[in-house]
Amino acid sequence: MTLTAGMGEAGAGRPPRVLDPSERTAETLFGLIMVLTFTGSLSVAQAGREDVRAMLVGALGCNLAWGAIDGILYLMGSLAEKGRSLATLAAIRQARDSRGAAAIIAEALPPVIASILQPAELEGLGQRLRALPDPPARARLDRSDWRGASAVFLLVFLSTFPVAVPFIFVRNAMIAMRVSNAVAVVMLFVTGTVYGRAVGRRPWLVGVGMVGLGVALVALTMALGG
After folding, report:
1. 81, 107, 166, 187: least CB-packed within 10 angstroms?
2. CA 143, chain centre distance (Å)
3. Are 87 and 2 in contact (CB under 8 A)?
4. Is 113 helix (H, G, I), strand (E, B) or coil?
5. Alpha-carbon gap, residue 32 to 116, rounded angstroms
């Protein structure tokens, strides 16, 4: 938890990333699964241009709606995190003594970091937090939160296009399906390699696993009527 979340970026140097690699992976994977459930439901043996058009409209519309929903959920999560951070800061400032403030800080920090800090260091952090200007009474969304929500929306929505484009330019539905599936496999693999680098695993191995996970999730979604 970031104790200063919601209090502005005073003194901040390099701006934080809008989305971390795991969030980008999750949103891209979600968008791909959504569009693949539409392309996978198309019967290429019997599909005409109207069927393809209906599938494309459905896939684009669904990802547009879910991109907006995911963006709103991102904003709600950001606001909740800022609210928790302000509550933690208020508890630190209202603590009866430095030891009480140090205990609150230790509980709020990641366990690994808290375990290596000495009591005097935690108390010093408490003193510096108490010396900060008064924080706002309520948590507020800032520009970075809106950028994050916009990024979530774009990742979910734009992930539709590479998979859907073959159906726009290739008239033969069977060939379009094969090209679309190939594009989806490449996107899943690339998404997996990016995630693999972020978590310190072999990128190619995680990429292969991401392809398998994507296929399994699409099959499960379609089997459950999604």
Report:
1. 107
2. 17
3. no
4. helix
5. 42
Distances from the Cα of 88 to the Cαs of 4, 16, 92, 106, 206, in angstroms? 9, 21, 6, 11, 37
Q: Are 68 and 150 in contact (CB under 8 A)?
A: no
3-state secondary structure of 221: helix
Q: Rounded to two decimals, what is the model's pTM?
A: 0.77
For residue 40, the model assigns a pLDDT of 79
Judged on CB neighbours under 10 Å (0-12, 13-18, 19+), 106 is middle
- How far is the C-alpha of 175 from the C-alpha of 196, rounded, in Å? 31
Q: Are 152 and 19 in contact (CB under 8 A)?
A: yes
Under DSSP, the state recorded for 41 is: T
In whole angstroms, how far apart are CA 67 and each of 58, 60, 182, 185? 14, 10, 24, 21
Read off the amino acid at residue 130: R
Q: What is the mean pLDDT of the chain?
A: 84
Domain extent listing, the chain? 21-223
Determine which helix (DSSP H) or strand (DSSP E) holds 165, and give its type and residue range.
helix 160-169
Q: What is the pLDDT of residues 64-85, one digit of tens each?
A: 998 999 999 999 999 999 999 9
81-91 burial code (b ≥16 CB/10 A, e <16): bbebbbebbeb
Task: Output the furthest CA–CA distance in the chain (Å, rounded).
Answer: 75
The number of beta carbons lying within 10 Å of the beta carbon of residue 223 is 8
d(CA 32, CA 185): 10
Length of the chain measured in residues = 226
DSSP state of 7: S
Averaged over 175-191, what is the pLDDT?
Answer: 89
